[in-house]
Design brief:
about 350 residues, single chain, five-stranded mixed sheet, alpha+beta, Heat Shock Protein 90
Length: about 350
């Protein structure tokens, strides 16, 4: 079905747009014969309305004969034949209407006017068909462009989702490997602590798997997950590992990607606390600045230990996930001085769901 036929408002606008061709056709009849404006208008306006619907028929040929995908001779020959047939049909209907019209003048008769202007009307009918076909090809090209853009966007979204799944999949074996190493190190020296660590680790893994099924989670859920990981590590490090939080309350409901903080706190433990005899404090701060959620994580580092080259798997993963989800609106900044390592990430506040 023609796309206009299913849209009443657009069809009405289209038909109303044929008033101008009808007026031009009226002028042609007046100039080409002795017809008065009244007779010319009474004859031409219904013909213009009929031509409006005849031009819609070109849609089906334009769909069947795409530009660039049809042999040139077949393309030109088919449209030429269609133009002639359309114009001939239009003239036949016009002749019937001219004879059916009541006389508006004793001296000038509509059939005489129509007969006198038949050659001009035939040429106009062909021109109308060709203009209608050209308009349909423009419409088909626009629709094809929109469809191509839609497919490109769908492919981009699919690629984005695949990348996010791949990045998320990297997290699970990474922290599980480190956690099992922690349990192994305790098993020989403190079996009770190792058992408690297994229980906490099981709870942590259960929660991480539940949250990992979602595209976004509330920030307070992500904070509880990070706290669960740190609770596992506190069994291993005891008083050497302390945690401080400064969370702006309105930020707790903000949606964030799942498993976003866990790689950051894991880095803080693995590359910070574990290398310090006296341990230290991991501090997590969350605030909202303008339209961004800003998360800052600070941990102490051994001043005598050389900084590692690059960001490592955890930070690189977080950076890529933020960029993939939020684009240039997300930032991750890393800073280190003699005794402190600081990670600050920010991304736009979004509404959940």
């Amino acid at each position: 079905m023609h796309p206009l036929l299913g849209r009443g408002a657009w069809l009405g606008i289209y038909v109303a747009g044929w008033l101008l061709p009808g007026l031009l056709l009226t002028g042609l009849l007046v100039l080409s014969s002795d017809a008065t404006w009244a007779i010319a208008a009474a004859l031409s306006m219904p013909l213009a309305l009929l031509q409006a619907f005849l031009c819609l028929a070109a849609w089906y040929l334009c769909r069947a004969l795409p530009i660039g995908g049809t042999d040139l001779r077949r393309f030109a020959g088919t449209h030429a034949a269609a133009a002639i047939a359309s114009s001939a049909l239009w003239l036949a209907a016009g002749r019937v209407w001219a004879h059916a019209m009541p006389d508006l003048s004793d001296e000038i008769h509509a059939p005489d006017v129509f007969t006198k202007t038949t050659p001009a009307l035939f040429a106009v009918g062909i021109l109308f068909y060709l203009l209608g076909a050209a308009g349909h090809y423009v419409y088909i090209a626009i629709e094809a462009s929109r469809a191509a853009e839609s497919r490109a966007m769908d492919l981009k979204l699919l690629a984005r989702e695949a990348e996010l799944r791949a990045l998320r999949a990297q997290i699970d074996p990474h922290f599980l490997f480190n956690s099992l190493n922690s349990i192994s190190s305790l098993a020989g020296s403190d079996a009770g602590a190792a058992r408690r660590m297994c229980v906490l680790l099981a709870d942590f893994l259960r929660t991480s798997l539940r949250l990992g099924k979602h595209d976004v989670v509330r920030l307070d859920e992500e904070l509880r997950l990070a706290a669960g990981y740190l609770a596992v590590e506190q069994i291993r490090f005891g008083a050497r590992l302390k945690v401080e939080q400064d969370i702006e309350e309105r930020a707790r409901a903000c949606p964030v990607p799942p498993l976003l903080l866990q790689p950051l706190v894991e880095n803080a433990v693995t590359h910070g606390i574990s290398h310090l005899v006296d341990g230290g404090v991991i501090r997590v701060e969350v605030r909202i600045e303008r339209d961004d959620v800003v998360i800052t994580l600070t941990n102490p580092v051994d001043p005598d230990r050389a900084a590692s080259a690059g960001e490592g798997v955890g930070l690189s993963n977080v950076r890529r996930r933020l960029t993939t989800i939020y684009g240039p609106g997300a930032k991750l900044a890393v800073a280190r001085d003699a005794a402190t390592f600081r990670v600050e990430l920010s991304f736009p506040v979004a509404t959940e769901g």
